[in-house]
Amino acid sequence: MKTFSRLTIGQYYPGESFIHRADPRLKIVLLLSILVTLFILSNFLGFFYLFLFFLVAIVVAKIPFSWILRGLRPLIYIILFTLIIHFFFTAGEPIARFGPFVVTEEGFKNGLLLSVRFILLVVGASLLTFTTSPIELTDGIEYLLTPLKRIKVPAHELAMMMTIALRFIPTLLLETDRIMKAQISRGADFESRNLLRRAKNLISLLVPLFIGVFRRADELALAMESRCYRGGEGRTRLRVLTMRGKDWMAGMATILFLLSAIYIGRL
Amino acid sequence: MKAMKTHFLTRAAVIAALYATLTIIFAPISYGQIQIRVSEALTVLAYFEPTAILGLYVGCLIANIWGQLGPLDVFFGSFLTLIAACLTWAIGRLFLKSSQKTYIYKGSLLGLLPPVLVNAFGVAFILKIVLGLPYWITVLYVGVGQTIAIYVLGYPLLIVLLKRKVLSEEEGAR
């Protein structure tokens, strides 16, 4: 039975680099712009430009390349599947033949293009999660959602929920571990090959978890109310987000770069 | 927007935490080739627990932020979970007035359909747009994983929770 003590939660790679210290709001907005750009680009030259951009960002943020590669590992199957589907099942000019299967030029190009875009999407997103702590990310999301309060999106409540949930994840990991061990000592089998039996045993884990979790939730609500928590109105913050001059400049530079990448990548 | 009740907020938050925790613990089967997310079994909570709707959404958001599949999963995947949870809740309301037996057995069987269907069709659509994968194969592929997580694991769980009134008893104590 594995224990969860060495499990890392999230992907934050702590650091002091310029990218780490940049305003989380800026990073989220830039990530969104990068994603849109990736979908506008339609040739490899454009992708190569963005690849260079990511490379510079990774070096500046001092993130080890092994981390980036590790993040891509779970995607190998879906990328392979995409490549196979496109290589062999696209109509067009044949360029190679494997037995009954024919690879077409269009299929080859399309498959590679879509896979490269997908990999860049994931690397771009992990640049954000590698350099931004979960709490900063939540603060940034709350701030960016604030204008949506007018259409009744509960921005503060959602962010508060994320913050509380993040705080509870380690606690629940420990609790799950504890309950699992207790149930194993009573004969539960969480590693059975039989799916039905395994599912049945998981219920003996989930029910106590639920009860414990809801008790915690109600205790927390009581504690918050007795400290006069009244929702987001007029609440002050411990960390106030600020855009520094450097952040503005980096933001502008990135947007200019993306625009030029679009100009080149559409040719 | 009227301020949410604090206990509503904290309950939704712990459901979110639970969803994220289960996704992390059972990661090997939640992100692999066939996606069986054990945490998807929690979608059954939306059948009788309104806080679960937002809780599942936030939980899915957190799990997806670290779930490698990247931003698409964060925006669209979590949104699909939200839609499915709303539908499940609505079906739960419909059956509330019928007999206890229908509510527990038949109603929940129907109420668990949205998380399977919405995800199967929605995720397949996203994968078709992004990676150009064939639609119906992907529907099947996602659907099988979801069906296992929800009907093999979630359904018995829901019946246990409803029968023993695990959560409503606490409701009465407050």
Secondary structure elements and pairings:
The complex is a heterodimer of chains A (267) and B (174).
Chain A: H1 18-21, H2 24-40, H3 44-61, H4 65-72, H5 76-89, E1 94-98, E2 101-104, H6 105-131, H7 134-145, H8 155-185, H9 195-226, H10 245-265
Antiparallel strand pairs in A: 1-2
Chain B: H1 6-25, H2 27-30, H3 51-65, H4 71-96, H5 100-111, H6 113-131, H7 135-163, H8 166-173
Helix pairs in contact in B: 1-3, 3-4, 4-5, 4-6, 5-7, 6-7
Kindly describe this structure.
The complex is a heterodimer of chains A (267) and B (174). Chain A has ten helices and two strands, in the order H-H-H-H-H-E-E-H-H-H-H-H. Chain A has helices spanning 18-21, 24-40, 44-61, 65-72, 76-89, 105-131, 134-145, 155-185, 195-226, 245-265, and strands at residues 94-98, 101-104. Chain A has a two-stranded antiparallel sheet. In chain A, strand 1 and strand 2 (101-104) form a beta hairpin. Chain B is mainly alpha-helical. In chain B, 76% of the residues lie in helices and 0% in strands. In chain B, helix 1 packs across helix 3, helix 4 (71-96) runs antiparallel to helix 5 and helix 6 (113-131) runs antiparallel to helix 7. Chain B is globular, with a radius of gyration of 16 Å. The chains are: A mainly alpha (267), B mainly alpha (174).
